[in-house]
Design brief:
The complex is a heterodimer of chains A (about 325) and B (about 600).
Chain A: H1 2-30, H2 35-40, H3 47-56, H4 63-77, H5 90-125, H6 130-144, H7 147-161, H8 179-199, H9 202-217, H10 220-227, H11 232-257, H12 264-269, H13 275-284, H14 288-316, H15 318-322
Helix pairs in contact in A: 1-4, 1-14, 5-6, 5-8, 5-9, 5-11, 5-14, 6-9, 7-8, 9-11, 10-11, 11-14, 13-14
Chain B: E1 49-50, E2 62-67, H1 82-91, E3 96-99, E4 104-107, E5 110-115, E6 121-126, H2 140-150, H3 158-162, E7 171-176, E8 179-183, H4 190-197, H5 205-213, E9 236-242, E10 246-251, E11 257-258, E12 270-275, H6 279-287, H7 302-307, H8 309-312, E13 314-321, E14 325-330, H9 351-357, H10 360-369, H11 372-378, E15 384-385, H12 410-419, E16 440-446, H13 449-464, E17 468-474, H14 476-486, E18 491-496, H15 508-511, H16 530-543, H17 548-565, E19 568-571, E20 573-581, E21 584-585, E22 604-605
Parallel strand pairs in B: 1-11, 2-12, 16-17, 16-18
Antiparallel strand pairs in B: 3-4, 5-6, 6-8, 7-8, 9-10, 10-12, 13-20, 14-18, 14-19, 15-20, 21-22
Helix pairs in contact in B: 2-5, 10-12, 16-17
Classes of the chains: A mainly alpha (about 325), B alpha+beta (about 600).
Amino acid sequence: MMRTYVLRRLLQLVPLLLALTALTFLLLRLAPGDYLSSVASNPDVSDATLDAMRHRFGLDRSWLVQLGLYLRNVLFHLDFGESFSLHRPVFAVLRGALLNTLLLALAGALVTWGLAIPLGAWAAARHDTPVDRALSFVAFLGLSVPEVLSGLLLLMLAARTGWFPAGGMRSIDWDLLGPGAKALDLLRHLVLPALVVGLVPLASRMRQMRASLLDVLGQEYVTTARAMGLPERSVILRHGMRNALNPLITLFGYTLGSLLSGSLVAEVIFAWPGLGRVTYEALLSRDLYLVVGSVLMAAVVLVLGNLVADLLLAAADPRIRDG
Amino acid sequence: MEGWIIHRPTALPLVIAAGLLLGAAAPSAPPRGAARPAPRRPAPAFEPLVTPMDEIGVRGGRFVYAVMNDAKTFNPIMSNETSSSDVNGRLYASLTDYDNARQESAPRLAKSWEVSRDGWTWTWHLRRGARFSDGHPLTAEDVLFSFAVAYDSTLHQSIYDQLTFDGKKVEISAPDSYTVVTRLPRPLARELVVPKLSALRILPKHVLEPLWRAGRFASAYGVGTPPESLVTSGAWRLERFAPHEMTVLGRNPWWFGVDARGQRLPYLDQLVYLVVPDDNAAVLRFENGEVDALSDVKPEDYATFARGETRGAYTLRDLGAALTSNFFWFDLNRERKGGGKREVGEPCAGAVKYAWFANRDFRRAVSMAIDRDAIIRSVFFGEGVKNWSLMTPGYRLFHAPAVSGPDYDPAGARRLLARLGFRDRDGDHVLEDADGHPVRFTLKTNSSTARMQMANFVRDDLAKVGIACTVSVIDYTVMINNMREDFDYDAILAGLTGAVPPDPGMAGNFYRSGAISHFWNIRQPKPETRAEARLDSLFDALLEPRSLAERRRISAEMDRIIVDQCWVIWLPTMKVKLPVRNRFGNLHPTIVPQRLLWNIETVFVRPTGRR
């Protein structure tokens, strides 16, 4: 049953991706200008050359024809087109950037959840005490400082102290480093952008954890456990936490779905070579197939993330799995 | 997308030919660190390029340069934007080089050149013993091949337009391996011919010809090419490329440039283009020493940089006025195609506004309403100059200091408007024209901070003389579309920036009435006004082979016509300052692009310099 469920979800992807492709083509066409507008801003380029390039890229045809040709290439040849500016297949361009973004996003998620769960639990255990209030205050401060500002502040810290590199993903001498040193170098570069990415959703996740645990702690079986004389620590960790985490697992799954969309600001400030920057640049230069390719990729990750969320929930909660 | 490039053929470092010093300063071949031995062929005598420089340097070290974007291709023929052509200018040699400091051409692969008496035929004498980065000899064959690829009409790249003259190609032949003869479609001024033909980057025929024949040239030498397989003709070769991270160039061991002691150039081991998309982050990384130079600093930061000079061991150099001019113009275009919302011949701005805009006195009044000193003080933090031409004071040879236009005189502007019958009839502080239409228009500009601020100043100044101007900030591509295709605007504030060579002859698209950047009324089938007819004939004269003095006089005359007609309302130009680290020798930034890297082959790390 599980298998048919997964299969059905994957099949739902097909119409979704088709609709997204058509919509992206249409929106890019509705926006004024095309890839050649930036080429045309160089007055040295003659009209004849522009027309010839427009023809070569197929931009002289209607968007429906372009869409049709694109779909034919995708469906029959698995050819997702070439980037106009890079003269390279779209997925060759996106692959590296996708991995970099996933790395950053997962590190960010690690920061978020690694802090949200223990801090949220602590706040719940000490609810309505100064500890709880202090934690809330810090969390909401983090929530209300814009990413750009926190990013620049952290960058300034890095630049002034030299504790961390001020941006980038790897050192210039990366090639000369051994495998261990490479991992360490990457990690040093990852810390600050991951903090920026991770701190944004921290406040809400922390509050959710707190609420969830408080909810559980009010349940009868917890009272029973307490009545049986179990130490408070064991009540919270063994009985409370396990059940409080259930709703958060679903939430975590949905975070997976939005992995690709949360890191553009951090990528720009920390010069992280991720998908956000590639897509943004492609969009600015109207690099059609590159934009469509990254939209499709984001959609696939979103759907897969949601699927994983559902599966995780099923794994965690027997009522769903067996029901 | 700050400015627009009028054109961009070449920007290579300063070098002067060794001339006939055959082998006098020749280093012993093969050079240190050569990738592999040269093919066995009768080795021609080596004619190195002895590069003049302030200080003889030492080898070693690295220079880290922050850029906003990385290269999109390492194929110089296929590159369409500056982030690619900047890097490709280091990787591939051209016939001649441009001396940014003197603003004149200098030898490169061609050790000398001459023009025939009739001015049609140019002969280029190539340096003997030049080699590609794989050790393969570089000869006239490679130059012919590179021209052939650039003229391949199936590739359709901007280089095609750079190498043609009024749409006609140059005829090229090679009488021997070290001579290239080019016959131009028309005689042309020396200052234009030499840099224009040097827009062509020399490619290795032995590597790329098979790919070209197979129809795979467009994707050859893309950014996915393994660095070691990229064969270059310039001073550098590709060492590493990490997309959106960095491009690392290393020394081409076979490069023909040497210093006065015969030491092979470049001095630096590595030239690193580090991608830093955020301005503020770039400044931070300059401050902490990760980055050695910035290509752009905002005027509001000049004072901060000046204060940090000692601590940061750098000097803030004043490069003078930028090559970028700022201006706005009114839409005088008329519908030519028809079929849309307008009849053929109908003014695109509408009949009422067209009547104002087409009136020279109206435009003069607008120009007189603008307080340029205030703009310099506020937008450029005092670091700007008034400017009345495309030839800003940064154009060493062609700036005409005597030309100036209708400057700030609000009372005069009001008098001029009153004489046109513009009066505030209903007491709302906005003038109405003789037919009672309130004088309102929209000034569009793209989202560049300086331009938006200038537009706001224009709005406030115009309000003071009773003209209601609304500023509208739009996307760059939309703006291009407005000014080129749909003419859906009243006035646009933009700018033009020069490249190499900084010569008015490169700006035909602005001056000529039939051209696409003759913004106020583009693509006129024939000049619509007498002043424009005069401008066209002056521009033709400017292109002809004449003495520099004569060409300067013609350029000043063109400036005067435009200022007199007020077709564009000139705004001030920014002064450029750049921080330069003291530990580098021979680092002399110029206002001409590439500002910092034009002579990077001679830049070295001072041995005593502290880090």
